[in-house]
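Quick check before the chapter quiz. The format below is the same one you will see on the exam, so make sure you can read both the input and the output lines.
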Amino acid sequence: MAAVAALLLVILVPSAGAVCTLDVRLVDPSTLAWTPIAGVKTYQVQESFDGYITSRNYFIAAPAFHISHRASADTKISYIVTAMLDNRTLSVTPSLDGCSELLVVTLPADAEFRALTRKAVLPIVGSGPGAFGGRFKSSLKMISNSPNQKGRLIFHPAGSTAAATDPSMPYYLGSGVGETLFIDDIVAELGASGVGSLDIVPDPEATSSVPIVEARIINDTPSGTFGTTTSALYPFDFLQAPTLAVQIPEGQSRVNIGLRTLTATRAKALIYSSSGRLREFRDLAWPADYTILGPAKQIIGADLQPGESVSLFFDGAAMPFYTLTENRTNDPEVFVARPVQSTNVGSYVE
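Here is the expected output.
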């Protein structure tokens, strides 16, 4: 981190006669240090982001501690450092207060981590000709959950890495909580066609929160509308991509496997026969900010027959999913491999 962390130092006052002073301090933006104490072999470092409602404890031998976190916004972290005295130590006999000190550090926002997490993503949207004289499209609904939410909607076409020239448009919901913005065909509204992913990115000076985002992916035909609704995903939840398991259905439906990468991502695909026996595996890799959607042969390089399955294990930050489309009506469903879900794109600490 290039920025130097601001800090507030509060030292717990030693009791009368105590001879243990740690002098806990920040020696660089990511390292705490303190004065070593004679006879002490272990130091306890207690770390908390919420004023010690919850905390994490580390036990180390050296009189220094590396802060390994990245934050998407300036974040206060509290540290209590305590010298742990061996029962057999006779050289110092301080009180507990005299051998503990508190340091509150402001961890500055990391620009790369902020860019990675300060957005929401619809991993699949599209626009184009549909079955039976219909049209395949993705309608977008955004509902404000705080005042003056503004930013950009950015479409990243499948089969390519995100670029600064990708189609985009501004959004603005400024009248207060509950305002709704509806776009009937978001990809066409952006002047694009085909399938891809959609980023919802707050402006740099705007609040970090994004509106509630939903997309309806539909095949709109003269005889009716067939489709499914999907919600936006938050990149922080996918810093380690979850496993995606896909089983190939019988002939009435077809499967496409999709992925929106956030960082460069590798995967191992394990392919199982209809009896559940592992028959082969493939090693795969994609660049950062890449969107892909296609049949199993295109994505993993192997044909899968009805009843067979594939499990994808990822190394990297990515949003894996698959679509199941009914052949007769082109009615699509989207299944996202979901970890524990966050609620918005505010202040995150890794």
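If your answer matched, good. The first strand starts at residue 7 and ends at 10.
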